[in-house]
Specification:
The structure is a homotrimer. Chain A is built from six helices and 17 strands. In chain A, 22% of the residues lie in helices and 33% in strands. Chain A is globular, with a radius of gyration of 22 Å. Chain A has two domains: 112 residues, Rieske Iron-sulfur Protein, CATH 2.102.10; 211 residues, Naphthalene 1,2-dioxygenase Alpha Subunit, Chain A, domain 1 (Alpha-Beta Complex), CATH 3.90.380.10. By secondary structure, chain A is α+β, with helices and mostly antiparallel strands. In chain A, a hairpin with a 2-residue loop joins strand 5 and strand 6. In chain A, helix 1 crosses helix 6. In chain A, the strands form four sheets. A seven-stranded antiparallel sheet of chain A has the order 11-17-16-15-14-13-12. A four-stranded antiparallel sheet of chain A has the order 5-6-7-8, with no helix packed on it. Chains A and B meet through loops of A and helix 2 and helix 5 of B. Chains A, B, C: It comes from SAR86 cluster bacterium. Chains A, B, C: One of its GO terms (molecular function) is 2 iron, 2 sulfur cluster binding. Chains A, B, C: It holds the Pfam family Rieske. Chains A, B, C: InterPro entries: ARHD_Rieske_2Fe_2S, Cholesterol_7-desaturase, Rieske_2Fe-2S, Rieske_2Fe-2S_sf, VanA_C_cat. Chains A, B, C: Keywords: 2Fe-2S, Iron, Iron-sulfur, Metal-binding, Oxidoreductase.
Chain lengths: 343, 343, 343
């Protein structure tokens, strides 16, 4: 079950060029394509003629031409034309509210008329010259909520990512979890520690002494329907940590949009928005590659976890304090789903 | 559901050499093998001893020797012998009427006693010195009727095969479909057009000017249980088209035998019988290779269409005039199936 | 259905080093690991925290550390510790009686309190300086009882292994099958025959004339829950065959432990214990490689047989005298299962 009256990331802007892109979002098969002005349309991915996915076709001007017999599907789901055919009474395909913003294609898989552009999440780092962003997309064969659990409990870093971002102090510091409006926030602060490899690199890039003792923070913010933004960083110790002046800290936001595909799979859009070396595109590539490797480790864990849970449907799991972030996020999702069903 | 009291192509003659061949026809697992005289037998592909498919064994003289413990299966489904065993009361395997003709192995998957050699289709081009034939076989993961639809509506050529046999006039000319006896015939005539690449090649091979304006025809003939013969060709314009004298036309028959394997898969025997350069075996190879590539494009479409239809079982498809050939063929199949069930 | 109150081989000793090993035995997912003294533990392969298989973790001292959040699982199924967590009321994982003996890890998948070390099979060739052993393990996608059938009827050697151990006299000699206590014994004796390739090699290695006429024997011994030991060998003809003096015979035991994984798959531990050239480890490797190839031929047959039987669930198989060994073994298994259910 998913929240459907909400915006999900369907693709990155760079994934959608001149060819149509078929993608399943919340169990709905949707084809995305750009019209002649580059504006994105989202239509049911099924040719009303013989059922071929329209995403196998090609874009011509403002229409999507089916790859089998040339039916021309318009941006509003109407059949615009077909060779030698009267198409005025062809059934319309469902369309989906879709919008491009901040480098992502956003789709609303629920009721069309409820779509509200004001509900698009605020991404303060996007289109902001003080920030640089790099990221990618993975297909993960696991329930999207397992990814939310993963991101709302970073204590796994010591075990899954021990060689890059793990450090023993993560296990030593308790987390605090709270519901703040429509956000679940779970945070961990590590004071006066040595920076782990990734953050040493960031400090060097920033021109700070990478051997200096630092304060480190992780503030995970879940927001419905399915995004997790994590404030992460280190500051020279004793300067206020997360609140320290930007000159003495390396600060970034881990960006995670988690889009359900089927009950057992999702699309994972991951990235890092950072405040240092923002003009250095080589650094962006290097960080993206490293982050891609780290998140690959998560994918492997999640897919094995999914297989294990599917094979043991009756087993109860534990819910510890470190799990509070994931548990509270799931309850928030559930609350929204219930609300949608009664509206 | 399939017509079963009818002949289907099970294999090409060249597929069946000295080794047994296991193939599923209308959901029945059958092993084909040649006896010492080269005559083909067709027996249930299941060893009555321990259930190994007999097609994993080997042929010795007139029997098929099981690859596990050496049970010898005869051409009539009887166990002929087995080391140290009395076999007279072994249960018999089902056998199938089978016949080799025109380069194909034909099998009758229904009631043995109803098999009638007179029902084998007439193939006027086979064993005829005025014609040359080349072809192949594909396994296609799609309902066999999707292939019939495909072949009875060639308007897809412009979209699926745009670089070889498509041309815009296909879309411009309407088709005419009729039931003639036990054949569904759907035809399209394009007058005074430029020949597409394949037919330019044929005209050159024939010694005709490949830049000449031509009349082109496509006459698709479906016949139960599951074959489509398509008269195709071009003639120098104004000479009567299909009826023109052979000296001014390049004329061929696209040969398609479509044999159901399971509800979602079939064996597709395709080929081309042509009237020009019939002694030129190099040309036969070149045409066969090109046709194989074209039909590979169809396979990809059909397999994706099958996945889409399976995922959307409740969606209704359109039935346009271009679909009449496929629709009428399906009704003819259905009529035969009903008749079989009431007999 | 399986006998569960019994010892099964779960792994070879050399498969289990410093990393945990996850393996499904009789449909139960179990993780095996060695503590700091090298003693093996067997625990349910499921982390009580978030369900990741524990076998993806690592061993530290006497505990298994989960690869996701560091839960430490003890050898008795108890959670020993977890970073920052009180673990005293965590639910315990199921544990399994497990013991290492004769180069194998043995597990008891049934009731813990019924486990009885005296029920471990006697392996007279193990840890015996007069014998050499080499073997391996295969995963086979077939009901474990199909492997028992295979090993209790060696008449398949002429068809499946014709180039190595088959010979026509196998088919010519009848087998004798009997139940002796809790063993099913099926034997075949071939007198005054030429040795097949494998045994010619053994005779040469032993210093015997490999062209000599021999007496050959095959005595297959099935024992519950699922092992088959086969006495095999050749002796210079007229010296008593199996009972001949060791100086005139080449004698070995084919070792087969067949451990059910799921209803349609099993782990097959195969090997050969031999009495000649016991100090020659090169010979051990060569024999092991050859045996591996022979047993690979069996695997292929069994997996195809399983597919065929699964596709034809209603077909009855024959039960001939050569099948008596397998049939009697199956009845013995069934008797034990019934007894377990009523106890």
């Amino acid at each position: 079950m998913y929240i459907v009256n909400s915006w999900y990331v369907a693709a990155t802007s760079e994934e959608l060029k001149d060819k149509p892109l078929g993608r399943t979002i919340c169990e709905q098969e949707i084809v995305f394509f750009r019209n002649s002005s580059g504006v994105v349309a989202a239509v049911e991915d099924f040719c009303p003629h013989r059922g071929l996915p329209l995403s196998l076709g090609k874009v011509e001007g403002d229409v999507l031409v089916c790859g089998y017999h040339g039916l021309c599907m318009g941006q509003s789901g109407e059949t615009v034309s077909m060779p030698k055919q009267q198409v005025h009474n062809f059934p319309c395909n469902r369309t989906y509210p879709v919008i491009e913003k901040a480098g992502f294609i956003w789709v609303w898989p629920g009721d069309f008329e409820k779509a509200n552009i004001d509900q698009l999440p605020e991404l303060h780092w996007a289109d902001n010259p003080d920030w640089a962003y790099g990221g990618g997309v993975y297909h993960v064969a696991a329930d999207y909520r397992l990814m939310i659990d993963n991101l709302m409990d970073l204590s796994h870093e010591n075990y899954v990512h021990s060689s890059s971002i793990g450090q023993k102090e993560i296990d030593e510091q308790p987390v605090h979890t709270k519901l703040e409006g429509d956000q679940v926030i779970t945070s961990r602060f590590m004071e006066s520690v040595e920076a782990p490899p990734f953050w040493k690199m960031a400090m060097r890039q920033k021109g700070l002494d990478d051997n200096a003792i630092v304060d480190r923070w992780q503030i995970c913010r879940f927001q419905a329907p399915s995004q997790v933004m994590v404030d992460v960083g280190v500051a020279l110790a004793g300067n206020g940590g997360f609140d320290a002046d930007l000159s003495v800290k390396a600060y970034a936001v881990i960006v995670d949009f988690i889009t359900p595909e089927t009950p057992d799979s999702h699309w994972y859009f991951w990235g890092l928005a950072r405040t240092w070396g923002v003009a250095d595109s080589v650094m962006t590539s290097i960080i993206k590659e490293g982050q891609g490797e780290i998140f690959q480790e998560d994918m492997d864990i999640l897919e094995r976890q999914q297989l294990s849970l599917s094979a043991n449907p009756k087993r109860r799991l534990l819910s510890l304090d470190i799990d509070a972030g994931g548990a509270m996020s799931r309850r928030l999702i559930q609350k929204h789903i219930k609300k949608e069903q009664t509206e």
